[in-house]
């Protein structure tokens, strides 16, 4: 069907429109001027910069022809931008589209949290035009004002909890922002800022921080955003496209720039998840380095699961990225300024757990194992912490790396503080065929010193108690005291002789080791030797002839 001579032809985004000249001119000052100056049928070449899509233009055309149009949060900003471009103002025609759309925007969009976010999102495709008309600022200001009134609109603050296998449900929900909303206008379903693209999300979060929105709520929103746009795509469910990876990379880098600097505000588990995603997406090096520094600054709040970062790349050898963990450790120690050593002890124990987890990796190099262990030992060397965790890690490493030479096994055990091992660990070590002989004997010498110290303290305590009792009862018990003193003297002599006997036995062991004749004996009779030493000191107890265990949480790497 041919168009009427009174119609004008327009092509908008490839869609043809045939519209009445007079009706268009009556509502649009811009089209009226163009039609007057250009009587030809097709004006498409004169509207190359029109800020619209075919659906929005159809709405405006229907309005020009007198039909009712349905404005919504999704289309009102686009309609406003097009109406302003076509100069559909009250100056040209009363009850025109600019007035109608402005009224709807002011009274239906800005008061509502949900509608305002939807309208804000719709501006992404015509951002410059919407910004020029201050529509973007109006939406942003409305959203920020509502958040200042009720920060919970961003989600409840993240709960910094440590999860175990027994509370896997908590692990699933611990960091989900609360969906509760208190709105200015009651909405059927609550929206959040995760609807926005990063180009809109980043500036509005920066504005919130500038306006002093509490940072714990900002952090909640940031990780809610990551959970929607980044984390699902880096967990292996579906391989993201190149476009999606680029978008996720941009989001990670933007969110990292927005993260609050306060220590402990963001749990290490979330920072670790963010770092692992950054590694997979290959974000810029500065971003990854800053995430490592953030984790390092609060490493005393981390769990071993947070450090089990899988190695990436085709050339990877080790199962976990131990080099990155070493950098994180250095960051912690270089930033630790507290006089309280408890943080150092916590991190040292964390390293012990980490080493126990990675020690079974056959590709874990000896120098890396030692480097991590030495970092921990150097920082916590002056503290009174148990060495059982380090012994357990060494035991696993020696078991999984049977090919090590004697010198290499000696090197592994160099980081073990034998004098800080518990009696249970020492008992296990005395039966551990994987340990070098020198280390096992060193442990026995350490036990000797501890037992000698215990005997001396017992003798001293007995003497002190006896002197106190003699002072109190010297008149009534003068006759009996001499016999009791003789019994005490006999007991002290007995304990002393046991210590001397033990020292003699250890000296003999040392000499035989130096002559090289003791190795066969020690491999053959470790259990009986340990029992004999305890029998000599009169402290035999029921022993569990089982492997040494340190209580630890079961860890499932991401």
Q: Ranges with pLDDT <50 over ≥5 residues?
A: 162-189, 537-554
Strand order of the largest sheet: 1-2
Name the structural class.
mainly alpha
> Radius of gyration over alpha carbons?
38 Å
Instruction: Give me the strand/helix succession.
Output: EEHHHHHHHHHHHHHHHHHHHHHHHHH
Specify the helix fraction band: 55-70%
Mean pLDDT figure: 80
Oligomer: single chain
Described by strand count, sense and barrel closure, the largest sheet is: 2 strands, antiparallel
% residues in beta strands? under 5%
DSSP summary: helix tally: 25
Distance between the termini: 64 Å
Number of strands: 2
Shape annotation:
elongated
Family: Belongs to the NPH3 family.
Organism: Anisodus acutangulus
Keywords: Coiled coil, Ubl conjugation pathway
Pathway: Protein modification; protein ubiquitination
Describe the structure.
- This protein is mainly alpha-helical and about 550 residues long.
- About 60% of the residues lie in helices and about 0% in strands.
- The chain is built from 25 helices and two strands.
- The chain has helices spanning about 20-25, 30-35, 55-65, 75-85, 95-110, 115-120, 125-130, 135-150, 170-175, 200-210, 215-230, 240-260, 270-280, 285-295, 305, 320-335, 340-360, 365-380, 390-400, 405-415, 425-430, 435-475, 480-515, 520-525, 525-535, and strands at about 5-10, 15-20.
- A two-stranded antiparallel ribbon has the order 1-2.
- A hairpin with a 2-residue loop joins strand 1 (about 5-10) and strand 2 (about 15-20).
- The longest helix has about 40 residues, at about 480-515.
- The protein is elongated.
- The two termini are about 65 Å apart.
- Mean pLDDT is about 80; it is low at about 160-190 and about 535-555.
- Pathway: Protein modification; protein ubiquitination.
- Pfam families: BTB, NPH3.
- This is Phototropic-responsive NPH3 family protein.
- Belongs to the NPH3 family.
- Keywords: Coiled coil, Ubl conjugation pathway.
């Amino acid at each position: 069907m041919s168009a009427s001579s009174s119609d004008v032809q327009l092509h908008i985004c490839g869609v043809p429109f045939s519209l009445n000249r007079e009706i268009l001119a009556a509502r649009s000052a811009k089209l009226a001027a163009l039609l007057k100056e250009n009587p030809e049928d097709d004006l498409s070449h004169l509207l190359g910069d029109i800020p619209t899509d075919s659906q929005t233009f159809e709405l405006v055309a229907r309005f020009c022809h007198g039909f009712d149009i349905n404005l919504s949060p999704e289309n009102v900003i686009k309609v406003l931008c097009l109406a302003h471009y076509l100069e559909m103002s009250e100056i040209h025609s009363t009850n025109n589209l600019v007035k109608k759309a402005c009224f709807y925007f002011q009274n239906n969009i800005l008061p509502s949290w949900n509608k305002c976010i939807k309208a804000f999102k719709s501006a992404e495709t015509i951002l410059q035009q919407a910004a020029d008309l201050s529509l973007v600022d109006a939406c942003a200001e409305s959203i920020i004002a509502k958040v200042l009134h009720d920060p919970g609109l961003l989600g409840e603050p993240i709960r910094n909890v440590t999860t175990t296998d027994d509370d896997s449900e908590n692990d699933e929900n611990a960091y989900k922002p609360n969906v509760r909303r208190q709105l200015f206008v009651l909405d059927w379903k609550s929206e959040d800022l995760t609807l926005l693209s990063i180009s809109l999300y980043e500036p509005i979060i920066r504005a919130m921080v500038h306006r002093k929105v509490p940072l714990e709520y900002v952090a909640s929103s940031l990780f809610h955003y990551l959970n929607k746009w980044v984390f699902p795509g880096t967990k292996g469910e579906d391989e993201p496209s190149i476009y999606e990876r680029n978008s996720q990379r941009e989001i990670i880098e933007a969110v990292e720039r927005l993260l609050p600097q306060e220590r402990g505000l963001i749990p290490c588990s979330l920072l670790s998840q963010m770092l692992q995603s950054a590694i997979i997406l290959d974000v810029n090096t500065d971003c990854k380095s800053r995430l490592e520094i953030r984790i390092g600054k609060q490493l005393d709040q981390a769990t071993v699961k947070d450090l089990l970062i899988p190695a990436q790349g085709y050339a990877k050898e080790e199962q976990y990225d131990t080099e990155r963990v070493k950098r994180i450790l250095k960051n912690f120690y270089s930033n630790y300024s507290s006089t309280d050593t408890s943080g150092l002890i916590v991190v040292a124990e964390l390293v012990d757990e980490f080493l126990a987890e990675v020690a079974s990796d056959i590709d874990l190099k000896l120098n890396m194992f030692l480097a991590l262990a030495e970092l921990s030992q150097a920082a916590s060397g002056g503290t009174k912490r148990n060495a059982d965790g380090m012994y357990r890690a060494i035991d696993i490493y020696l078991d999984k790396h049977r090919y090590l030479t004697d010198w290499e096994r000696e090197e592994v055990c160099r980081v073990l503080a034998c004098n800080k091992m518990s009696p249970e660990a020492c008992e296990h070590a005395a039966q551990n065929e994987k340990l070098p002989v020198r280390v096992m004997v060193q442990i026995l010498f350490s036990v000797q010193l501890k037992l000698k110290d215990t005997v001396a303290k017992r003798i001293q305590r007995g003497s002190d108690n006896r002197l106190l009792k003699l002072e109190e009862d010297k008149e009534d018990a003068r006759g009996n005291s001499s016999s009791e003193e003789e019994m005490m003297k006999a007991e002290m002599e007995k304990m002393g002789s046991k210590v001397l006997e033990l020292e003699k036995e250890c000296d003999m062991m040392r000499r035989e080791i130096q002559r090289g004749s003791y190795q066969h004996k020690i491999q053959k009779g470790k259990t009986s030797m340990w029992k004999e030493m305890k029998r000599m000191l009169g402290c035999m107890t029921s022993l569990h002839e089982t492997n040494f265990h340190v209580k630890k949480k079961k860890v499932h790497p991401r």
